[in-house]
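Researcher: Please translate sequence to structure tokens.
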Amino acid sequence: MPRRRRLRRIVAPPGFKGFKPYGHVENKTAIDLNYEEYEAIKLADYDLMNHAEASKLMGVSRATFARIYESARRKIAKALVETSEIKAVYGNAHLDNDWFVCNKCHARFNLPNSTENACPICQSEVIERIQEK
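Model: Translation complete:
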């Protein structure tokens, strides 16, 4: 029997729900990019961290980080070549803080040490917590 999967720590959820290519054909199946795969791409390619640093930040081994990163790269390449939509899905992760999404402007944010429950961008009070699964 395999061991239980450890949750991967992510700092913030992706700032998007998905991407569609220009001229998207609706009958193609979407590719699900997990939050931890997004985090791996962000840490390695955007923040320019090496795999050892990024794996410590995510709370996984370096080899596990490399597998997550490789999976993310393959999914993104497949979506580009096959002109498929990319959707951000929760996956096997946990957020460092409580994060919220604004239903009006779709911004994602956290409210550290704040008693105000409104979107910091549009001041809308129609927000909902992003649930960990």
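Researcher: Any highlights?
Model: The chain has three helices and eight strands.
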